[in-house]
Amino acid sequence: EVQLVQSGAEVKKPGESLKISCKGSGYSFTSYWIGWVRQMPGKGLEWMGIIYPGDSDTRYSPSFQGQVTISADKSISTAYLQWSSLKASDTAMYYCARLTTVTYYFDYWGQGTLVTVSS
Amino acid sequence: DIVMTQTPLSLSVTPGQPASISCKSSQSLLHSDGKTYLYWYLQKPGQPPQLLIYEVSNRFSGVPDRFSGSGSGTDFTLKISRVEAEDVGVYYCMQSIQLPLFTFGPGTKVDIK
Q1: A5 contacts: CB under 8 Å, gap ≥ 6
Q2: Do the beta carbons of residue A23 and residue A110 sit within 8 Å?
Q3: CA B34 to chain centre
Q4: How many CB atoms lie within 10 A of CB A3?
Q5: pLDDT digits (tens, 9 = 90+) for A26-67
Q6: Which of A105, A108, A104 is closest to A23 using CA atoms?
Q7: How far apart, in whole angstroms, are the C-alpha atoms of residue A18 and residue A12?
């Protein structure tokens, strides 16, 4: 069974750093891209970027380039999303999802990590 | 960039009745490989999105056959033949023809009358 399990909810202050994780299991982690999707409170879905854990090839949405860093550790089947300096506007639910490369869609999703940034 | 629009943005349906959601893209989603890169997701309350339909009309594993997708080029439709209480949530269309840029529609909220 394909599973993506994300790290737990975080409460941070503006300016702090953060790294959240997404651990894949039940499939070959290095053979599929992993994507990150943001959902701000009460809003829709926004694609942030994708990473290929096999070689760490990473692509970012122009809206998020320079704002976050996506990485992966294939030895532990885990992808990461990190911020160096959080802002209140980063408050959102963040989902990781597996990207199938048949025609490039997200077929399995993590349960989400809620990030709250507040002073 | 491709812009995705959905109509209506909200829909209230009587159980057992049909429902239909439209999704339009600003550019054709038909790829030179002959496939159309249009997908549908349902996000139930408090849950992550789940894949319903891929490549316009193919139901994902475990998706009930009351869900169907159709369309071509820039115009697509998701239909629910008989809405059930468990179908409430927000429905999103998504395109991926413009890799690596993925775009979601704004979402259509479906609730039960």
Answers
A1: A22, A23, A25, A110, A111
A2: no
A3: 20
A4: 13
A5: 999 999 999 999 999 999 999 999 999 999 999 999 999 999
A6: A108
A7: 8
Q: Do A105 and B107 touch (CB under 8 A)?
A: no
List the helix and strand counts (H, then E) for chain A. 0, 11
* HEC assignment per residue over chain B: CCCEEEECCEEEECCCCCEEEEEEECCCCECCCCCECEEEEEECCCCCCEEEEECCCEECCCCCCCEEEEEECCEEEEEECCCCHHHCEEEEEEECCCCCCCEECCCEEEEEC
| Distance from C-alpha of A7 to C-alpha of A53, rounded to nearest angstrom | 18
- Residue listed under structure tokens 């911020």: A83
Token output for A103? 């025609």
Picking from A106, A108, A113 by the largest number of B CB atoms within 10 A of its own CB, the best residue to mutate is A106
Distance from CA of B96 to the nearest CA of A (A): 6
A47–B49 CB contact, under 8 Å:
no
- Nearest-neighbour CA in chain A from B50: distance (Å): 7
Q: A47 to each of A99, B21, B44, B55, B59, how far by Cα in Å?
A: 12, 22, 19, 19, 22
Chain A residue nearest residue B108, CA to CA: A44
10-residue averages of pLDDT along chain B (113 residues): 96 97 97 95 98 97 97 98 97 93 96 94
